[in-house]
# Entry
Amino acid sequence: MGHPEILVIDDETAIRRLLEITLQSNGYSVTHAATGKAGLIEAARRSPDLIILDLGLPDESGHETLKKLREWSSRPIIILSVHSHEKDIIAALDNGANDYLVKPFRTGELLARIRSALRGTGPEDTRPLISFGAFEIDLSARTVKKGSESLKLTATQYALLALFGRNEGKVLTHQYLLREIWGADHIDQLQYLRVFIAQLRKKIEKDPNRPEHILTESGIGYRFIGEP
# Structure
């Protein structure tokens, strides 16, 4: 089996070189592009396992490149950008990015995010069981077990946990979670989400005040980690 291939779309030569050296030394195959258009061509030609995308491209906004990629590709996309405003992060995640890191970044954290994103690839929609810790979510039976015991969840609690399980490692924005669980009319009802997150943490976390599975991304949303 070959090395996972990563496409880097970034106009900074130094960043492309740094990523190429870092990723290759950690067992990844790397290709790169300096513009959005070139990146789209490379993505279509090579079908990489993961894409690292800068938002500040010279020919078009990285947000536009992201939207175009998501019209036909479901490969994980990690945004790597100097833009640190919440609105930029939320817009990227809502447009289909799997994760977002702000430059300057720590290479160890980037590698961890890449591993997490790649774990979520594959035929997850056809996978009936999602396991994490002592828990098992059965998507076909719509049940959750802790060991051999069934975990009692309301329909909404189950829907929220299943959504997290299918998107392990990915940052899910408040608006996305509210829209998926409660509908478009409730995307401003953040308190709904906080209440159910607190309920879920009480049922699956060893210490709900120091969660290991449902992590808060401050001001943005939540990230589910199966194996801390």
About this structure: The first helix runs from residue 13 to 24. The chain has a mean pLDDT of 90.
